[in-house]
Design a protein that fits this description.
With 249 residues, the protein is α+β, with helices and mostly antiparallel strands. It is 61% helix and 10% strand. The chain has 10 helices and 4 strands; from the N terminus they run E-H-E-H-E-E-H-H-H-H-H-H-H-H.
Length: 249
Amino acid sequence: MKKHATLYRMVTDQHICPFGIRSLDLLKRQGYEVEDKPLKTREATDAFKDEHDVKTTPQTFIDGKRIGGYDDLRQYFGLGNGLKQTGLSYQPIIAIFATTLLMAIAFSWAMLEALNIVTIIESFIAFSMCALGIQKLRDLFTFTNQFLGYDLLAQRYVPYAYLYPFLETFAGIGMIAGVYTHTVAAIALFIGSIGAISVIKAVYIDKRELKCACVGGNSNVPLGAVSLTENLMMIAIALWMLYKSTAGM
């Protein structure tokens, strides 16, 4: 016997509710025959919410009983939150590092037709710096707000907070291009050292629970090992570049 559900969702010329689409898809995947009732105007949506004393749409009804919105529907089926990020999460930084690592491997193969570990590590750090720089540059104001919460130099000289993403991105691009080696290395060493000291003080000495600005402002990545790793990578690649330059490699 077919299972039936009724779904009310907002579908207007100005807005198609994504949670309504998600609810419709979920119901179908759960084997329900769905009576889809789109609310085609704001007035119709408001009237529906008033009639059923609800604050949001979509709303799903199963066997005449109101289940609720998309999150309520997932709970009804025992599916949890799915891919929805709630609370602190390392997902953004994992996505960036995994992608830049694959890019580094591809870069090594394209340039050398071999998987050279040194090339992979060098390009991984450079690509990661560029990717993290882009995240910060997307919204300088929110990045600086979060960054000012723990960076020691930025707290004393606010313009440094705005300058930091440009320096990081410039250093990453310089490493990829292999130009201005000493300048690039000096920048990476400087911002990496200040950053590492700031994180160690804020997290491991002062024991403060903060969010990391490494992937831009308003992130839910906890400050700690991730940001420290970012800074230590910059220090390591800077020292390696200076060593290679001195040794004539």
